[in-house]
């Protein structure tokens, strides 16, 4: 196994990059702790193909690329407010095996190689269409991971995944992090995130 | 960067290994989700030295070794009930850069190289003594991560770390995971884990 | 305002009765903390009519009856394993204004006065039918509160409530309580409960 | 049991009053859900004496007074920013058995009757002094309930309570509540609150 180039490891960790290090639109990105759990749920291995749909500021793609430098990662994002920051972040963290696909999924997916893993961090209003497309293309032992912060996305995702015959696990992550308040440490809650993992075949 | 050997990537993911895959004593091990966050907090980089004190069944060391195959990892554990399973797990997951140190910390730490990262998953009754030793040996830009499941360990850890002049962040992780209940998905809570990260220098 | 009898206040609090005080089948009852939040969501007032559908061991009805001794409460439960304990509990806590209705809802609801408040702690497989009936009978400024512990009940409840034109608030409660572990205090998580509150009219 | 006056039940519930109904300084008050659990932990009964130390906007005192109209409640608060709102709220909710004590505890406690229950929602910097005073005055079967939102208050409270020989239970409450986000329901987390309950005697 030979890595022909390497991520920016002198300065940044493989995973656990501080939230402030990511350029972002209105602080809309996956928080450090939830990102770590999301990567765990994606069960990344050596040279997989990963689609990151609604890549936002790219924080998940970037850490995933640190984990699998031989993988093929595609960050699909159309919203121009995100794309600017996404490009900055891919540069900053030398995420050279992440290819930016500027498209509004499910558009743009046709030209990509079949995925082993699909992460959906943001689906706009197209969740059903995206999942239909993903379902056709996902490899047999593949995995879909969806992060939902609204009850509606949670409900719709499960409905659509069950319709397509997936097994489903849902994990709800509640994180609170201390932050200095005068000389005290206040526990500050992050909004909960529902991480849905779906796969075909026996449970 | 050349990896001269590789972890068992054909079968298992780098991180996110299923809990059931680890041999363990009374199911006492760090759960998948908390393990992922713990690894993120450890901010692992290429060839660091990591001490895993109270390594238990070794799940954190094993995934850390997948992340930094060039790192030097030391799993310190004395409890014979754990050691048996720890050895099995290191074998199973080909964690070749994890060295088992059968000692009751702070014993056994003297012979190890100075650490860049220290993870304390279990400290027995020796937390203060261990932190004293760790504080003398930790490199300047090093990090200590402690997982606490009791209020007492949380309180003692913070007191001792502040005494030694560390900056501290505490994160509380509450995870609930769906499990099948007849045809339903019941949300089942895991006990919360407090992940304490400590470092010297400016906040 | 004259109370003609009084609950067993010498021994027990109005709300916050210890879980262990309730006779129960397989410890299936609403925990103290979630019970308190449920009662808050029910917004109880002086002489309301409350239907407690799937009353289980009756813990919600009992504390509700302490709060509104002039109210008319109906505990609807058919499962004979629960009914035995429910009767014991109603006796023990002198919940004299709770009437036990041994029926499998929506059966049995026809004979009851129109409700101001409806609490659904357990709906068996009949959630849709129950909500249809409840919707026909609930007074104009009434409230429905549903506790869900499975994703399926959460999803179905919301779907049915929205179908009937209700405004909805969902609260997810995660409680961990210390319990002695040797000389330590272990944080032990209770399974999360989703408390759904629904009402007609403007949000 | 005769109530000689009654709370404003026509408009407001006994417990579960909406957060927005309370006048407050910078929205610093105990949230509806946590208030309910706090009241449950206080195990209120008919005619108890309750000290509410650091009463803030008075939300706990007000709902407690609804529960025990025959009780004697003392809301101790000095901060003038809070006192203004506290007075408004006591008026609005007709909490006639709550006496406002404008003092900076432990000052002002000397003149009050011995308490059956003590709630500490805010202790300023005087936690140890307050607990010393409370410990001298609390009746034999009394209860102390403390709400902590910082790690420091949590730690100090437990230390001081154990020093005075109390048994302790700590409950951590994590609440997330849906709020409308365009047409979706976003789960919004409230900061976690640690509710500490302490009592003398056998566990």
TrEMBL record, chains A, B, C, D:
GO terms for biological process, alphabetical: cobalamin biosynthetic process; methylation
Keywords from the named record: Cobalamin biosynthesis, Methyltransferase, S-adenosyl-L-methionine, Transferase
GO molecular function: protein methyltransferase activity
Pathway the protein acts in: Cofactor biosynthesis; adenosylcobalamin biosynthesis
Transmembrane segments: none
Name under which the protein is recorded: Precorrin-6Y C5,15-methyltransferase (Decarboxylating)
Organismal lineage: Bacteria, Pseudomonadati, Thermodesulfobacteriota, Desulfuromonadia, Geobacterales
Shown chain mapped onto the complete sequence: 203 to 405 of 405
């Amino acid at each position: 196994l030979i890595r022909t180039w390497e991520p920016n490891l002198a300065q940044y960790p493989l995973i656990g990059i501080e939230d402030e290090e990511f350029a972002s639109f209105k602080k809309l990105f996956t928080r450090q702790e939830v990102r770590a759990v999301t990567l765990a749920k994606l069960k990344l291995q050596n040279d997989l193909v990963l689609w990151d749909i609604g890549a936002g500021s790219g924080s998940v793609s970037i850490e995933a690329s640190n984990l699998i430098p031989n993988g093929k990662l595609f960050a699909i994002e159309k919203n121009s407010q995100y794309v600017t920051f996404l490009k900055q972040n891919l540069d900053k963290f030398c995420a050279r095996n992440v290819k930016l696909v500027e498209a509004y999924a499910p558009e743009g997916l046709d030209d990509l190689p079949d995925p082993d893993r699909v992460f959906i961090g943001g689906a706009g209003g197209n969740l059903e269409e995206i999942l239909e497309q993903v379902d056709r293309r996902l490899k047999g032992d593949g995995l879909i991971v969806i992060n939902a912060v609204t009850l509606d996305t949670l409900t719709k995702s499960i409905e659509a995944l069950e319709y397509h015959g997936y097994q489903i696990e849902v994990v709800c992550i509640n994180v609170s992090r201390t932050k200095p308040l005068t000389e005290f440490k206040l526990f500050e809650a992050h909004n909960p995130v529902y991480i849905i993992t779906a796969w075909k075949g026996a449970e």
